[in-house]
Amino acid sequence: MRAAPTQEDIRRQNLGALLRRVHLLGPVSRAQLTAGMGLNRSTIGALTADLTEAGLVLEELPRDTAGRGRPSLVVRARSQSVYALAFAVGADRLLAARVGLGGVVLDRREVERPGGAFGLDESVERLADFAAHLTASAEPQALCVGAAAAVPAAIARDDGPAHAPPGPERYGALLADAAGRTVRVGTTGNLGALGEHTRGAAVGHDDAVYLHGDGGISGGIIARGRPLTGADGFAAELGHMVVNPHGRRCWCGSTGCWETEIGEPTLLTRAGHPGTRGRDAVHRAVDAAARGDKDAEEGLRSVGDWLGIGVANLVNILNPRIVIFGGTLRLVYPAAAAQVRSRINRTTLPTHREHLRLRTALLADDAPLHGAAELAFTELFENPLEFTPA
Hints:
Blueprint: H1 7-25, E1 28-29, H2 30-37, H3 41-53, E2 57-60, E3 74-77, E4 82-89, E5 93-100, E6 104-112, H4 120-136, E7 143-151, H5 167-179, E8 184-187, H6 188-199, E9 208-214, E10 216-223, E11 226-227, H7 258-262, H8 264-270, H9 279-290, H10 294-318, E12 322-327, H11 329-347, H12 350-353, E13 357-360, H13 367-376, H14 378-382
Parallel strand pairs: 4-7, 7-8, 9-12, 12-13
Antiparallel strand pairs: 1-3, 2-3, 4-5, 5-6, 9-10, 10-11
């Protein structure tokens, strides 16, 4: 039997909940915190005082004080003083950012290799170098409270082909060793979903599906407001849902994976751009279709039809309120929306599609990066007073 929470446990939970609310909502008044958290004014006052003393937030008078009575103090995150390091590994792009408490991107580094790829060792070395520069550019007394990386579930090895999980775990261990700090790791799809749920198109939607195109296809699921990560943290590799048993062989060893029908190589080949790769190539194919190129139009229609088949399956199984298209699918979906919607209308349950929204990622290509930042802040919200800026 689990022991009842102590007063100190409850206080720690309330401190974390209040700090996370300020982190997500931005500057918020004590009165709003009281109403939103269901705690009394004196408790909110004590909690904000503790967080202020710890150097995590500051309190100030609101800018607009024209109303009657004494204005409620506004609680604001100390974004410059408290930050996390976030990393994202793409098929042809590496990203790193210093993200302040409150979700503010304070500094970032990026390197691209259009049409190419970064090997495991090179990408780890580059990101570790970014981490050093980002840390050096912070205020002298600023505190880094964590680091996390969004990586593909399949990692390209320098000495061979891609491999499946525990690739992300290996990546995290190598990056932690190179950067000299613990680095939490999540898959691109899962952290993309987390990023869109906290900062993007899925804000306010507690049941969401995120799809990410970047060479292959990955995904993330938010169920009742929480990421659905699975037993080992690698759930929602939606690109390996089998949609065509008579289709092509996938690198994972299966046949007819969704990725083989809607992934970047298939799209570019069907659109008349075989042998090309990368976001720029996808953009050119989509642009060609918009200008009336018949091969490109037919390629987009075919991919759109298979995209709709997979989305319809997910809608029937998960009943989400919103499906978000990220990565290169952010380019593909608007061009193939008619096919996707047609499949959904024909094959999903009416109750499931009635309130369904289909959207492109509001955070664009940075959704996984923002999700990595949220993962990096996790320990801070679990026990805020363990972290105290100088």
